[in-house]
């Protein structure tokens, strides 16, 4: 090459550029550079490499993409942080084998910094998407002097070795783009972490956000779906020279990639020919249990449990107060302190995503028995497990220090043996075996129970027929509920009459769903609120009992507390704690009072309502659907803390029940979800819809129903959606909040609210994710068009024309379709 004269060189390059115009090449060499406008195409026509720009045409990048896929999907960018300013750049390979990206004055914008000197270098774009430099004089074409697969950006392609070269110390990791328009490294990255037993981490800056887990020879612990299958293979290689993960899709006609979105979402995509689009096959962060260390130390995250975080057996919350407030990050501590010298034991936990292995030690050759002994002897060893899950398990993995980031997976999980004090171990094992025994007895005598129940039912019917039950129950000095007694004080009428000044109008607080509410002061000076159910009210005995049973069982700082009740023939009353600040609608829809609730207060109110709802939906012993959430049912205490009230329409769901249907649609227009208003279907997701409406009302200070806008006839949801799509969501905000609000929080609230009012229940988040979304800084999913965004209400019941005269009329809960 060196002997070629300058003239010949020019001739060559002229010849090659003509050639490139007609046929796409997959290589460049020192005499033929790649200019902006030209591209390399891999031999199988899968990938293409060249210059491109994103949003800004004056920022030119060199990178590669799928040749046949439109719109263009980038897989690699060379000069991520140093774009060229014009379209006159070129990619050259120097005679030593260094790739350089230069402008016309030969200023170097990017260089491969190839460390080995080549005799006859050539750069080639392979069909895997790998852009490689090799030496044509080297007999082994697989011997790359440099390869783009060592420097991925946001995309991990099949066959890429993802990890660390122990000889050179080079780490291959992936980092997100700064934004979809800027390929410079963003906040998120995925690494193979070599501390302890290697594991895959997703990090935001330096904080771990998600742990895909470590390799157990079958898959990654904690990510059972990542198991190799005929379409998708996955392996972990660990030897003296290198340590890496690699996946592959053996069928070349299937295009697959892992991409780390600027928001931190890690997803596996596959190209779907028929849909002509990328399909998400798997996503790393699917639920709250995937948040790193979500439950703190010695606790496991159990998605089907409420609350989701549970201390391991034999452990208790480090800070019970925080734990009960759903603040789990402090985790758990041993119930009985460890006593290494006098002997500890190990309790087996099954179906677990093994904890973080950053401070672990491992040996492939030791069996479980030896592993146990090793751990027992070393007082700082907190747990052990098998390393290799094949053939019933082998190898040994020991943990030192706290056990964090566990979740219960059931079938896909592993066995973990956790150290605990010998005395505690004994207790826990006894408890476990007695639970087993009890279960055995229960199942063993199901037949007996059924026959007993039958006898009981027959007796019950007879008793009822003869009116005996009434008498028996009347004797009870407690409010009666369904067919069970309630431990709830019965107030007597004179006490109530005295307290409310004989229900004087000056004591009247307002009109609730089913009758007036009065303020009262008991003889001991306690302030109470008495809800007197009007005889003509829609709330029959059924709703009344319902409310009594429900509220008596519920205890949460964001739910109003029931103090007692009164029931005699037609007269039914409920006695609640008194809320001095009335309800939310009293403030946010009032021209002057609205100013008393600044942004900070409103955020606290939204958060409080959400916490109350989580409790109703999942953390109380029952699953309760409120069915009538609205501003007038959110009461405020003296510190403006919100309390959910009015459970007259609430429904209790059994353990596995998630949805029910009713012919009797009750609730309040403007807050009802489409599937409930139209089909009578309700679930926790219908409460989510009402919650979304509530949030928009709190943020905007406007009512969903009766909302008017000069430019369109949408309701508040529709208006919020228009502003959202116009990227001007801040215009929604109540004028009086403009000074106190924090723009990012407002946008986050509106985003969450719009997700809650999605048309399809399955598109709405659950309450627990709402709380996480409101408090985290992660980016949120984009909402789609909400349900019920044009209609103000179902037409047959439209009373919006009355709106101006009678503000409370529409606020009263309606019973739409009485039982047919
Ligand atoms: C790169 O190639 C172009 C066109 O072949 C040439 O003009 C330029 O001098 C080369 N620059 C370097 C640094 O090799
Ligand atoms: C090439 O890039 C350098 C550095 O940005 C710049 O100073 C120079 O003016 C550029 N040359 C041309 C012709 O744009
Ligand atoms: C190549 O080396 C230069 C100078 O050390 C450095 O600034 C640049 O980031 C390196 N390029 C790559 C792709 O590593
Ligand atoms: C590869 O995938 C394509 C399309 O999905 C399919 O038609 C073909 O049969 C597969 N080839 C093999 C060898 O499995
Ligand atoms: C326990 O194991 C740790 C970690 O391997 C080690 O540093 C420590 O020396 C061991 N302690 C004893 C008493 O063997």
UniProtKB/TrEMBL annotation:
InterPro entries (UniProt xref): Bulb-type_lectin_dom, Bulb-type_lectin_dom_sf, Kinase-like_dom_sf, Pan_app, Prot_kinase_dom, S-locus_recpt_kinase_C, S_locus_glycoprot_dom, Ser-Thr/Tyr_kinase_cat_dom
Ranges where the Protein kinase domain occurs: 503-788
SUPFAM superfamilies for the chain: alpha-D-mannose-specific plant lectins (SSF51110), Protein kinase-like (PK-like) (SSF56112)
Primary location: membrane
Enzymatic class: transferase
Compositional bias annotation for Polar residues: 798-813
EC number(s) per entry: 2.7.11.1
Membrane topology listed for this record: Single-pass type I membrane protein
Keyword Transmembrane helix tagged: yes
Identification of the protein by name: Receptor-like serine/threonine-protein kinase
Pfam families: B_lectin (PF01453), DUF3403 (PF11883), PAN_2 (PF08276), PK_Tyr_Ser-Thr (PF07714), S_locus_glycop (PF00954)
Gene3D superfamilies recorded: Bulb-type lectin domain, Hepatocyte Growth Factor, Phosphorylase Kinase, domain 1, Transferase(Phosphotransferase) domain 1
Compartment list: Cell membrane
Annotated region (Disordered), positions in chain: 778-820
The family this protein is said to belong to: Belongs to the protein kinase superfamily. Ser/Thr protein kinase family.
Domain Apple: residue ranges: 340-421
Transmembrane segments: 438-463
Record field: catalytic activity: L-threonyl-[protein] + ATP = O-phospho-L-threonyl-[protein] + ADP + H(+); L-seryl-[protein] + ATP = O-phospho-L-seryl-[protein] + ADP + H(+)
Signal peptide start-end: 1-24
The entry's keywords: ATP-binding, Cell membrane, Disulfide bond, Glycoprotein, Kinase, Membrane, Nucleotide-binding, Serine/threonine-protein kinase, Signal, Transferase, Transmembrane, Transmembrane helix
Source organism: Hevea brasiliensis (Para rubber tree)
Domain Bulb-type lectin: 25-146
């Amino acid at each position: 090459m060196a002997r070629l004269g300058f003239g010949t060189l020019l001739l060559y390059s002229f010849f090659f550029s003509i050639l490139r115009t007609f046929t796409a090449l997959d290589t460049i060499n020192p005499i033929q550079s790649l200019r902006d406008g030209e591209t390399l195409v891999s031999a199988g026509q899968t990938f293409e490499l060249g210059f491109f720009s994103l949003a800004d045409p004056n920022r030119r990048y060199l990178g590669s993409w799928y040749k046949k896929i439109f719109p263009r999907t980038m897989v690699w960018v060379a000069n991520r942080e140093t774009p060229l300013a014009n379209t006159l750049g070129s990619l050259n390979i120097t005679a030593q084998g260094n790739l350089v990206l230069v402008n016309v004055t030969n200023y170097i914008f990017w260089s491969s910094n190839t460390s080995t000197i080549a005799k006859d270098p050539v750069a080639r774009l392979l069909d895997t998407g790998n852009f490689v430099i090799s030496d044509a004089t080297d007999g082994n074409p697989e011997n790359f002097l440099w390869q783009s697969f060592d420097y991925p950006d946001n995309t991990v392609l099949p066959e890429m070795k993802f990890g660390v070269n122990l000889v050179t110390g080079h780490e291959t990791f992936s980092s997100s783009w700064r934004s979809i328009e800027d390929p410079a490294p963003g906040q998120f990255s995925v690494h193979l972490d070599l501390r302890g037993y290697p594991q895959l981490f997703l990090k935001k800056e330096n904080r771990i956000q998600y742990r895909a887990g470590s390799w157990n020879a079958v898959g990654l612990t904690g990510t059972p779906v990542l198991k190799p299958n005929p379409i998708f293979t996955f392996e972990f290689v660990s030897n003296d020279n290198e340590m890496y993960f690699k996946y592959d899709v053996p069928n070349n006609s299937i295009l697959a990639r892992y991409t780390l979105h600027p928001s931190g979402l890690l997803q596996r995509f596959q190209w779907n020919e028929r849909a002509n689009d990328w399909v998400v096959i798997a996503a790393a962060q699917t639920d709250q249990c995937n948040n790193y260390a979500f439950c703190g130390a010695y606790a496991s995250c159990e998605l089907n449990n409420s609350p989701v975080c549970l201390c391991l057996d034999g452990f208790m919350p480090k800070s019970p107060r925080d734990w009960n407030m759903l603040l789990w990050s402090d985790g758990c501590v041993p119930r009985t302190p460890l006593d290494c010298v006098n002997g500890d034991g190990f309790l087996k936990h099954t179906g677990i995503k093994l904890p973080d292995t950053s401070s672990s030690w491992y040996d492939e050759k030791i069996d479980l028995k030896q592993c146990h002994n090793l751990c027992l002897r070393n007082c700082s060893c907190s747990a052990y497990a098998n390393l290799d899950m094949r053939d019933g398990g082998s190898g040994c993995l020991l943990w030192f220090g706290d056990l964090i980031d566990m979740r219960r997976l059931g079938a896909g999980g592993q066995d973990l043996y956790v150290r605990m004090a010998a005395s505690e171990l004994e207790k826990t094992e006894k408890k476990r075996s007695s639970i087993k025994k009890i279960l055995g007895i229960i199942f063993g005598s199901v037949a007996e129970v059924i026959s007993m129940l039958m006898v009981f039912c027959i007796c019950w019917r007879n008793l009822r027929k003869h009116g005996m039950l009434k008498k028996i129950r009347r004797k009870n000095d407690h409010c009666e509920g369904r067919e069970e007694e309630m431990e709830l004080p019965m107030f007597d009428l004179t006490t109530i009459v005295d307290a409310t000044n004989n229900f004087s109008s000056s004591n009247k607080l307002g009109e609730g769903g089913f009758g007036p509410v009065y303020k009262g002061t008991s003889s001991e000076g306690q302030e109470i609120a008495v809800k007197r159910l009007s005889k003509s009210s829609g709330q029959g005995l059924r709703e009344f009992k319902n409310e009594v049973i429900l509220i008596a069982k519920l205890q949460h700082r964001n739910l109003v507390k029931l103090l007692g009740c009164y029931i005699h023939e037609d007269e039914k009353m409920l006695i609640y704690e008194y809320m001095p600040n009335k309800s939310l609608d009293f403030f946010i829809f009032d021209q002057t009072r609205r100013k008393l609730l600044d942004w900070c207060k409103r955020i606290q109110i939204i958060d409080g309502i959400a916490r109350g709802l989580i409790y109703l939906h999942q953390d109380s012993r029952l699953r309760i659907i409120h069915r009538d959430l609205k501003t007038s049912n959110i009461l405020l205490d003296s510190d403006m803390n919100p309390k959910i009230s009015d459970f007259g329409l609430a429904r209790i769901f059994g353990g596995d029940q998630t949805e029910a249907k009713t012919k009797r649609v009750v609730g309040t227009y403007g807050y009802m979800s489409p599937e409930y208003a139209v089909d009578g279907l309700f679930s926790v997701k219908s409460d989510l819809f009402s919650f979304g409406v509530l949030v928009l009302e709190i943020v905007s200070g406007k009512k969903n129903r009766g909302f008017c806008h000069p430019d369109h006839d949408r309701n508040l949801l529709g208006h919020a959606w228009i502003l959202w799509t116009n990227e001007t969501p801040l215009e929604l905000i109540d004028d009086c909040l403009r000074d106190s609000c924090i723009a990012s929080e407002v946008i986050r609230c509106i985003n969450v609210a719009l997700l809650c009012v999605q048309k399809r229940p399955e598109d709405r988040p659950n309450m627990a994710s709402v709380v996480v979304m409101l408090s985290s800084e992660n980016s949120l999913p984009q909402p789609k068009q909400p349900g019920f965004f044009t209609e103000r209400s179902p037409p047959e019941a439209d009373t919006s024309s009355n709106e101006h005269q009678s503000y409370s009329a529409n606020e009263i809960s309606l019973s739409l379709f009485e039982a047919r």
